[in-house]
Amino acid sequence: MIRTFLSSVTRISDLTEDNFDITPLARDQWDTGDYVVGKVGDIGGYASAIELANGRMINVMEDDHVVGSLGTRVATLEAVGDWRSIDDSGQLNALTSAGLFGKTTSLSPFIASPMRLQYQGHVTRNGNKVTMAGCLPEIPSVEFDIPVILIVGTSMSAGKTTSGRVIVHMLSQMGLKVVGAKMTGAARYRDMLSFGDAGASAIYDFVDAGLPSSAVDEATYRKALNYLLSLIAQDKPDVVVAEAGASPLEPYNGAIAKEVVRDKVKFKLLCAQDPYAVVGVQQAFQRAPDLVAGGAANTDAAIALVKKLTGLPALNLMDPACRNELAFMLRQALDL
After folding, report:
1. How much is the pTM?
2. CA 286 to chain centre
């Protein structure tokens, strides 16, 4: 019996292991956001972990089936790939454990090779393919008028999610209704689940708006972002802690996300891997961050260098001794 696993990009759908058909489609019928089935290949030397719809991580075995979605990843520190690079052999990769499927075109030597899969077909019902966008319920467009704590980074793995958890927890401890959101990046549910664990009343990301990653054309992203912001606004939170995955300079539409919420941003946190990276981001954008965190603030020496190079304050948010200062800055920004 073939085992079928639903990756976390399917969490917005009603898919189960056996309520759909698998239909091979011609390449001219493929598109971003299509749900497809891949058969796991040789796992020797390759990543084998898949994130399920509930966020739990499992390790699949050879010949298992995994349901994911066609998309694009352009990670600076890990993997680059696109579904358009899949050739006639039908060989593809799980570009993230969340089920973002495409063909790897560039890979860091410091990570395991992405899981190898063989295209089995598209997820279909009654002869029609099932897509992420097609699974979304219709909702009214709601004006987004909520204070935002915006977290951006110089790259992936700069400390954004870890810093966001600290801020979410702190604001919820202040008695505020906090929503956690990830506006850009590549699919990975556990980041947002960690915001929920920290005290967020609700969590959302671009998957909830029908995208396997935000590396899409501008028009598609703007439409999805409007849907995402309407979802958040329906919850009527006091504040949104919003992460822009990767860097706004990377092709994940982070600059558009910043543009759309700019007037609502009350506090901007920049997470950087080192002090010199802060200089580049500071020069690239008009508004300077209110605070620097991440690797660039790991030690007193790093904090001093950030101050010397940029004039910006920096805090090691992992150090409990810094929490009072952060709380003061957030209260001022939100006029509490």
Report:
1. 0.93
2. 24
d(CA 294, CA 326) in angstroms, rounded, equals 14
Same-domain status, 70 and 170: no
Structural domain tally of the chain?
2
Tokens representing 33 are: 């956001």
My answer on whether 172 and 312 are in the same domain is: yes
pLDDT tens digits for range 213-260: 999 999 999 999 999 999 999 999 999 999 986 566 778 998 899 999
CA dihedral of 97, 111, 251, 254, whole degrees rounded to 10? 70
Residues 167, 48 share a domain: no
Token pair in block for residue 217: 């054309």
Q: What single letter denotes the amino acid at residue 83? A: W
Pairing of strands 4-6, 65-70: parallel
Where is the domain boundary, 135, 163, 185? Answer: 135
The domain boundary residue, chosen from 81, 111, 135: 135
Q: Which of 261, 321, 329 is nearest to 292 (CA)?
A: 329
What are the phi and psi torsion angles at 276 (to 5°)? -70, -30
Which residue in 178, 184, 196 sits closest to 225, CA to CA? 184
Residue 141 lies in a domain: no
Query: Containing domain of residue 183, as a range?
Result: 148-334
Cβ(70)–Cβ(36) below 8 Å: yes
The separation between the first and the last C-alpha atoms of the chain, rounded to the nearest angstrom, is: 58
> Is there a contact between 212 and 71 (Cβ–Cβ < 8 Å)?
yes
